[in-house]
Design goal:
The protein has 478 residues and is mainly β. It contains five helices and 32 strands. Among the domains are: 145 residues, Ribonuclease Inhibitor (Leucine-rich repeat, LRR (right-handed beta-alpha superhelix), Alpha-Beta Horseshoe); 79 residues; 110 residues, Leucine-rich repeat, LRR (right-handed beta-alpha superhelix), CATH 3.80.10. The protein has a 17-stranded mixed sheet, with no helix packed on it. A six-stranded parallel sheet has the order 17-19-21-23-25-27, with no helix packed on it. A four-stranded parallel sheet has the order 9-11-13-15, with no helix packed on it. β1 and β2 form a beta hairpin. The N terminus is likely disordered.
Length: 478
């Protein structure tokens, strides 16, 4: 009874006065409906609040939408945004009656217990929404939908986002042939199978996200025809290309993520063709060989992740040279490769640097001591001999480094004593010097560090009892 009264109040009121509703001033037709994060209810709720006691916002909105779909006033609706509004249940098939929709966003509604689209409803949407340009259904349960039906989308489609929709089985490449498609996301659909072999690779595609799906096979050479492509995310797929040379000609790319695939071969000098990337990730593949001097033109790169491959030899100077690799570069992770030789110069602006689990040797250079901005430094599992002193270990002079949060020097043949300059690193949370040959007393002077949470000293020769700490509240966060 409450819902019936509430429905009457909504359906008989002037919806053009509601927050989130846009009407054509000349015809009175609703042309825009935006209830993102349930903002639509803000003003309209007060007109009917006396008609019921406590009813969830989602229930109110469902009643409103039921009125909308059956009202001739909404026949001209061209924009529908119901994202992040805590809806749940089946999407009503009446939504397909809004044949003039140019954009529809039902994404991010009560993830895990949210909206669901059945095959019958989806077929009607494809049949009637012939003018749709933007369709966002992220986190909507589409498990009943057969992926082959996706090829029937409007040829005017510009943006299609179906991330985490539980799509399964084989994805047909017909969607890639849509002539105006610019944005396509199918990510986080672990049961979705497909390949990129037969597609229209001359489209204006700008974003392609297939991450965390079961797309596999090799990359077609014609992928280089996607001259407008800015983002390509193939991470956590099953691609097995032995020489993905076509990737290095995507000159407009800003984000290239190949993480956790089976790409192999050497990274060619053509990588320097990529003048605009801000993020490169080749993590957990089988790239091998000496890393050539190809990073010099990456002036805008911020993050470079090359770990867990088989790169060998010594990294070229351009990998570390501030004048060649951009000042914006903050993250450089090269751990778990076969790199050899000494470390080179590291720009002082770097925030994260890791070369653990390589075959690097020799002294650690002075940049590890003078960097005032580095927050994460991982030099573990490498053959360090000493750190800045020839007769005994002066582990690190970090007096000026107040940004460092993590220091990992585990499993090196480090000797000598811990430098008390570590006590000046006021942001230090996790120092790890385990599995070395350090011979020292227990570092009670670390007890004053306000953010210290983990202290790893195992497998060394620390002596003296842990007591008589000269501070009222030692190790406050440990």
């Amino acid at each position: 009874m409450i819902k019936q009264n509430m429905k009457g109040e909504f359906c008989n009121s002037d919806c053009c006065s509601w927050n989130g509703v846009t009407c054509d001033q000349s015809t009175g037709h609703v042309i825009g409906l935006d209830v993102i994060s349930s903002q639509l209810i803000a003003k309209s709720m007060s007109t009917v609040a006396s008609s019921f006691f406590i009813i969830s916002v989602a229930s109110i909105l469902l009643v409103m939408i039921s009125c909308f779909l059956k009202s001739h006033q909404f026949a001209k609706l061209i924009h529908l945004n119901l994202s992040s509004s805590n809806f749940s249940g089946l999407v009503p098939s009446e939504i397909s009656h809004l044949s003039k929709l140019g954009s529809r966003d039902l994404s991010d509604n009560n993830v895990g217990h949210g909206l669901e689209i059945g095959q019958h409803c989806f077929n009607k949407i494809l049949q009637n929404l012939t003018e749709v340009r933007y369709l966002l259904l992220d986190n909507v349960n589409m498990s009943p939908v057969v992926p082959s039906s996706l090829v029937n989308f409007s040829s005017f489609l510009i943006s299609l986002s179906l991330s985490n929709t539980q799509l399964r089985h084989e994805f047909l490449n017909g969607v890639f042939r849509l002539p105006f498609l610019q944005y396509l996301s199918l990510s986080r659909n672990g049961g979705l199978i497909g390949n990129l072999l037969e597609s229209n690779w001359s489209s204006p595609l700008r974003l392609l996200d297939l991450s965390s799906t079961k797309f596999s096979g090799i990359l077609p050479e014609k992928i280089e025809n996607l001259i407008h492509l800015n983002m390509l995310d193939l991470s956590y797929c099953k691609f097995t290309d032995s020489n993905p040379g076509s990737l290095w000609n995507l000159t407009s790319i800003t984000i290239l993520d190949l993480t956790f695939n089976n790409f192999t071969g050497q990274v060619p000098t053509l990588l320097s063709n990529l003048r605009k990337p801000t993020r490169l990730s080749f993590v957990h593949n089988s790239f091998f060989g000496q890393f050539l001097d190809v990073l010099g033109n990456l002036s805008k790169v911020i993050e470079i992740y090359l770990f867990d491959n088989n790169f060998s030899g010594q990294l070229p100077l351009s990998a570390f040279n501030l004048t060649q690799i951009g000042k914006a570069s903050k993250f450089l992770d090269l751990h778990s490769n076969l790199l050899q030789g000494p470390l080179l110069l590291l720009p002082l602006s770097r925030k994260c640097f890791s070369v653990s689990n390589n075959k690097l040797t020799g002294e650690t250079p002075s940049w590890t001591c003078g960097s005032g901005t580095i927050e994460y430094l991982n030099l573990s599992r490498r053959s360090l001999q000493c750190l800045g002193n020839h007769d005994k270990i002066f582990l690190l002079d970090l007096t000026m480094n107040r940004a460092l949060t993590t220091l990992n020097l585990n499993s090196n043949p480090l000797e000598g004593t811990l430098p008390q300059s570590l006590a000046k690193c006021s942001s230090l949370e996790v120092p790890d010097v385990g599995n070395n040959k350090i011979n020292d007393k227990f570092p009670h002077w670390l007890a004053t560090l306000p953010k210290l949470q983990v202290l790893l000293l195992r497998s060394n020769s620390f002596q003296s009892p842990i007591r008589n700490l000269n501070t009222r509240c030692p190790f406050p966060m440990l």
